Amino acid sequence: MTNHFNDFINTDVFLMIGSNSAENHPQAMKWIVKAKDKGAKLIVVDPRLTKSAGMADLFARLRPGTDIAFINGMINYIIEKDLYFHDYVLNYTNASFLVNPEYKFADGVFSGLAEKDGKKTYDTQTWQYQMDGDPVKDGIREEAIKKDLTLQDPNCVFQILKKHVSRYDMKTVSKITGTSEDMLKKVYDLFASTGKPNKAGNVIYAMGITQHTYGSQNCRALSVLQLMLGNIGIAGGGVNAQRGESNVQGSTDFAMLNQYLPGYNPMIYAHKHTKLQDYFDKDVPKTSYWSNRNKFLVSMLKAWYGDKATQENDFCFDYIPKHDNKNRTHMGIFSDMAEDKVKGMIAWGQNPAVGGPSSFQGRKAMEKLDWLVAVDLFETETAAFWHRPEADPSKINTEVFFLPAAMSYEKEGTVSNSGRWLQFRYMAVHPPGQAKSDLWIADRLFKAVKKEYQSGGKFPAPMMDMVWNYDIPGEDEPNIEQVAIEINGYDVKTKEVLPGFARLTADGSTACGCWIHSGYWAMDKEAGTVACKRRLKKDKSGLGLFPQYGFAWPANRRIVYNRCSADPAGNPWNPEKELVKWDSLAGKWITADVPDFGATKPAAEPGGQPTPVPPDKTVPFLMQEEGRGRLFAVKGVNDGPLPEHYEPIESPVQNILSKQQNMPLATRFKGDFSKVAPTGSTEYPYVGTTHRVIEHYQSGAVTRNSPTLAEASAHMFANISPNLAQKIGVKTGDDVLLETVRGSITCKVAVSGVCVPMNIDGKEVEVIGMPWCFGYQGIAQGATANDLTPSVGDPNTSIPEYKAFLCNIKKASKY
Amino acid sequence: MKKISRRDFLKSIGLGTAGLTLVASPALASESHSTITGEKLPSKIRKVKETFTVCAYCGCGCGIILYSNDKKEMIFCEGDPDHPINEGSLCSKGNGIIDVYNNVNKKKQREVNKRRITEPLYRAPGSSQWEKKSWDWVLTEVAKRVKAAREATFEEKDDKGVTVNRTTAIATFGSASLDNEENYLLHKMFRSWGLLNIEHHARL
């Protein structure tokens, strides 16, 4: 989230799209309702009449997978009706920047599309700015970019965007989405009303936006919308992803993803980083705050390899494995597994046998493993894959190890919520029996592998030299404080715990495991404890910032990009919701939140006072190389500089907007994971989509083993319209068979108005919703919805397209 | 003089419920309450320990106060009224959080959730059952498997001669359910083995 939950109270209009907070983020809904009590409006855009939709002022039903059409239509409306925030767009976005005149968009594809070995990619040369100097050598310097401040040049970003979205007129959007023109107009008018200095519009999204073959572009569309309305960086605004797990923010920050190192530093790639200097040259931008990335990486290497990491040996750069640039995402790995390329798998608090796409094929692929380690609380479907209903254990030769772990309150440590708050939680009880904390298991496993290498083996140095100093004499548990100090960062010589990442260096004098968290373990004298353990509820701003409650990364900043909450001269757009303000008399910034810009320059001499930086010398978007919000993405996404509507890979209809039916770069796989239904399939005529229920957490591995929750939500079901129920002859509670090209499941049917048929350009399209939290283990068991979902993904992220696929449904014969 | 509640007292001495957990014996809850307010706590919670935690489920980050007794039973939980996000309320999942640890059985007694796995287990190739094992055994055996897979597939240089020091034969999944400090150690450990295939929930 750019903002955080308490900040929702400052919102005037919410646009909740592809998210169902009432069910999946109930305490977020609490703040939405509080804002509504003060007069705020809630718009919900969703294929289903969700619990959130039931509380909305406006509910716009759209066909799954048509969000870009819906949002581009709104951007078009805003430009046509002149409802955008002119000063914000001109000063804080790249609207006036001139783009290469060779840039083209035709027939649904952008210039630069090339195909090699059956794989499509974009050469982004023509998407770049017109600028002086060499962008590779000097970086994308804002001053060097050619601009037209009148926004009239046909090659300026504003005109390109205007032309691009002009194709998304209300009539066309209605045909694609199935939302009536009347409703579109109501939604567009209401949300566009936030394009004023004193209004805040808040976009709330979740997996309904990301789980598509154009999920990244869905997010881009929302960001462009918010930039046009001046809603980024202000109290009550933002683009706010509702994260689904208690620490999915933290696990992402700590790079449990193949392409990252902790703190969003890119992984090291063999094809471009043979030595440390290559990383500095190619992945440390010349401009933006990321120009400090060299400090972040070297400090991480110092944290990992201590005294062994020196200037002379590139700080043990070669100890980090180098990526082969192949698809090593969830789907890529399972595809490799099916081809017998993976020998061992560790499922540590994750249940891919239920949660992965095409999970029937996924479980089958697991049979190829030599060994599987499951670290969990309960015997999950993943741990039990060898005795799943469709399997014969005697034919499965995988060795399986189950390591019993601890529940959140049977150990201690921090979690990061959706609003980037790190909070420390404490141990209430010891884990039952011989179960152990995950920290303990990680510590002992590392030591056990290291011990195996005492007798030699291939390149053991990365293990042998790894800093692993977490023992406390006489104690069983590792020293979590030592881990925390390493993450937070310390001065190598003095061992001083650093106050924040501003102190990090690239010369090896500082160590820091994850730069964005630097400061989370720094002492707050007033609170008498470290930042993430604070629970002081002071809020001088009156905006719910709570600066001394936990720690918000980065730098305890609660609302990111907050320079944009004030005009170029530093006066808040909305004086009632002031985050930062330039006091021209005193010549300094008044800051309620930690400024997300260089508000002061460090003193020239040690011990001196820092000097304030005047408003015209500050940068609105510090993390962007050109310093501006990108209406047009010159980099960051590989599949297009502007969001464009494509149909889901499995769609009941043709794309009426262009000849390009699907995302041209969509990730696809071979063999077992290749199956998709053709467009307009008569065998699978209905649109399936997955969702969650309030009683169950993710795959249900924990909650389906909790008696009260298992009882409260005990059955797998599919939601269909009364119309479809009549057609197939079923009523609520009957068993139905759901079929896709990949497989079938049997479950109960729920007939209500949650799903209704939609009119898509004259064709009636039925939508079927189903929760994905069930499996064959636990107290509450049921069919797994992901047995139906396709293994196709977004080209930037490889997130699977769970949210729109084709299926059939019929009454199940008695069994 | 305004009568202060026990909660106000705890806040004013800067401990909060978490501080209590860290420094205090379980009896302190009732002692501090009667000292400050002159009242006895209801008998049900007289000898309980309060622990601050953050919910393990969605990403809202709600504060929860857990109540456990000296019989190592978790007896109750409630939304932390002092938490800025949830202000005392909880959803059904949050309310059910102690179920993961213990449940009330038919004899009206609390017992550890029967479905929890509380010992390391091993399933041999082709076998139709789990066998109970010791931690030493499973850790050593897993370590042997990791080493064997790594040794059989480790690439020191790629086909262009670039030092790569990696193996692609081991894959890890998880986890958004772990703490930050745990994820950090896992990441360090997996990279030290040379793994590229490190993935988790955020991909899905």
UniProtKB/TrEMBL annotation, chain A:
Q: SUPFAM superfamilies from the entry?
A: ADC-like, Formate dehydrogenase/DMSO reductase, domains 1-3
Main localization, broad class: periplasm
Stretches assigned to the Molybdopterin dinucleotide-binding domain: 689-805
Q: Please list the coiled coil stretches.
A: none
Entry GO terms, CC: periplasmic space
Q: Which Pfam families match?
A: Molybdopterin (PF00384), Molydop_binding (PF01568)
Keyword hit for Iron:
yes
Molybdopterin oxidoreductase domain ranges (all copies): 2-447
Compartments in which it is found: Periplasm
What cofactor does this one take?
A: [4Fe-4S] cluster
Q: Which InterPro entries match?
A: Asp_de-COase-like_dom_sf (IPR009010), Formate-DH-alph_fdnG (IPR006443), MoPterin_dinucl-bd_dom (IPR006657), Mopterin_OxRdtase (IPR006656)
Report keywords, A-Z.
Answer: 4Fe-4S, Iron, Iron-sulfur, Metal-binding, Oxidoreductase, Periplasm, Selenocysteine, Signal
**Entry keyword annotation includes Iron-sulfur:** yes
Entry's Gene Ontology molecular function annotations: 4 iron, 4 sulfur cluster binding; electron transfer activity; formate dehydrogenase (cytochrome-c-553) activity; formate dehydrogenase (NAD+) activity; molybdenum ion binding; molybdopterin cofactor binding
Return one Gene Ontology term, BP aspect: anaerobic respiration
Family designation:
Belongs to the prokaryotic molybdopterin-containing oxidoreductase family.
According to UniProt, the name of this protein is Formate dehydrogenase major subunit
TrEMBL record, chain B:
InterPro entries referenced in this protein's UniProt entry, alphabetically = Mopterin_OxRdtase_4Fe-4S_dom, TAT_signal, TAT_signal_bac_arc
Q: Determine if Ribosomal protein is one of this entry's keywords.
A: no
Q: Where is the 4Fe-4S Mo/W bis-MGD-type domain?
A: 48-105
Q: Which GO terms describe its biological process?
A: anaerobic respiration
Q: Where in the cell is it found?
A: Cell envelope
Q: List, alphabetically, the SMART domains matched.
A: Molybdop_Fe4S4
Give Gene Ontology CC terms.
cell envelope
Which cofactors must be present for this protein to function?
[4Fe-4S] cluster
Q: GO molecular function terms here?
A: 4 iron, 4 sulfur cluster binding; electron transfer activity; molybdenum ion binding; oxidoreductase activity
Residues that span the membrane, as ranges:
none
Q: Which residues form the signal peptide?
A: 1-29
**Keywords recorded for this protein, A-Z:** 4Fe-4S, Iron, Iron-sulfur, Metal-binding, Oxidoreductase, Signal
Q: Which Gene3D superfamilies match?
A: 3.40.50.740, ADC-like domains
Question: Which NCBIfam families does the annotation name?
Answer: TAT_signal_seq
Q: Which family does it belong to?
A: Belongs to the prokaryotic molybdopterin-containing oxidoreductase family.
What is this protein called in UniProt?
A: Formate dehydrogenase major subunit
